[in-house]
Amino acid sequence: MTEPVGRALEALLRRAVVDHGATERRRVHPPVVHVGLPGRPDGSARLELGDQRLDHALRVDALEAMVRRVRRVVPAPLVWLTRSGDLEVRDVDLRWLAAARTAAAELATALPMVVVTRRAWRDPSTGVGRAWARPRPPVSG
User: Fold this and answer.
1) Domain range for residue 112?
2) Is 23 helix (H, G, I), strand (E, B) or coil?
3) Quick one: pLDDT at residue 53?
4) Domains of the chain: total
5) Among 41, 58, 66, 68, which residue's beta carbon has the most beta carbons within 10 A?
């Protein structure tokens, strides 16, 4: 992902931040991987990781299955990893980024991936992101 981020994509990612802040009230929680489009329950899939330690092949398989499922509704899905904490790059971010890149190559499709916290989002590969003190849903107009 590079600057400038398009308005539609920026609104989707802001929606992911707002939704995450509204649905996850715990301060510390396990990461959750999402595929599809934020705000589209019919066009997204999620994998709650809990204490699971998946290897690279299983992460790729999981992402590919999720992409295939949501592609019926969303032709160009996103991958976003929701987690607690700040946006410093963590090992979990890099593991899922590698899996998203491998899945994209195997599926011959673009599969952008971002990390989402309660107040911000960031692409772990480029550092492009946005942060808000109090995220609010985007104004439609």
Assistant:
1) 7-127
2) helix
3) 79
4) 1
5) 66
